[in-house]
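We read letters as residues; the integers encode the fold. Take this protein.
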Amino acid sequence: MVTISNDVVIDYVDGKYKKVDRLVIKKVGMLPLGDRYEGKLRYWFGVLWIPSCSNKKSLRIFSSCILVL
């Protein structure tokens, strides 16, 4: 899970200081599903739905949902 935000930095270009806009991507968390997970993740109005795995080889046997603000 990441956030994306705008940032302004001051850069020295051609003998002048100049404001430069840039995008900043920050990692805010992770949710490992495993390499054998079979399911369809859904995102709807700020809620991430993670269904249980349809494959018997995965340890994720329960569904869960996460509120993303």
Remarks:
- The beta strands are 2-13, 16-27, 42-44, 47-50, 64-67.
